[in-house]
């Protein structure tokens, strides 16, 4: 009997041929029945989708239907996998359906939908265009192409913004390293919010600067101070009097500018890059080639340029010159403390008896 024939062997006798025809007919009948059962399960709703997949799989496994009929089975299974959110399986089934019958427009449509769900937008666009070429009147395919085209455009614009943000951040990071500038953890972000320096087209850094009046612990903020400017330019000659300076001791000629030395540890370059990308489209980007290295912390003495504590700023120097001092770690943005030589507070400050609140 043909039932016991070895795989791959040809029927020899008329009886064997007859048996084989009968077995094939039974398998065809079973495949069609499994297909119909699968269709009925789909109509019954979500609770029966898994059963529908099982029936379509059984129909496929009969291995006796024509390529075009088998293509429909793979396409139907792709449809159910789409309904279940099994997008990778849906795409695999749809692609197999197309391989078996390139004119199966439903399979092309399902391949496009699965590709869209997997964010394979170029592939989804290609499938839509292929489907419209085969069926120019297919409105569903045209609508899907519009959706895919719009999403592809949005993705490309987003990727361009991410790339631009990463390039700008890395350029700024390189500018820090070239200048010997060290960035540490933020100290006063509650006063300023997220602020970052900007590198212009001439490779000049523009810094946001926080000015703290140590005596009153009030603040001013300079949004954009060019690194090539000297410190006195932070103050406008026509600035109104400070409301708490009742004795008018904080005049331009009376104030001095200080920075805190020996405070903080330089962040690794990956952390600095993360800070520069914060708040941009590139904040979630994975960057490579940014090893966790930082400049070693400089040992500090008691006084002078290598000291810890408050260091007076020479107002004839540019911001660039001040920020690259080896004893200065910038707490994200430069922070300068302002005191007046005319106040009683000044003596305590100059004697090192005052320190910023922790």
TrEMBL record:
Q: Which UniProt keywords apply?
A: Repeat, TPR repeat
Superkingdom of origin organism: Eukaryota
Please provide one cellular component term from the Gene Ontology annotations of this protein: nucleus
Keyword Repeat on entry: yes
Annotated transmembrane regions: none
Q: Name one GO biological process term.
A: protein folding
An example Gene Ontology molecular-function term: Hsp90 protein binding
Region annotated Disordered sits at 281-307
Q: Which residues form the Cns1/TTC4 wheel domain?
A: 200-263
Q: Which family does it belong to?
A: Belongs to the TTC4 family.
The molecule here is called: Cns1/TTC4 wheel domain-containing protein
UniProt organism field: Brassica campestris
- What lineage does UniProt assign to this protein's organism? Eukaryota, Viridiplantae, Streptophyta, Embryophyta, Tracheophyta
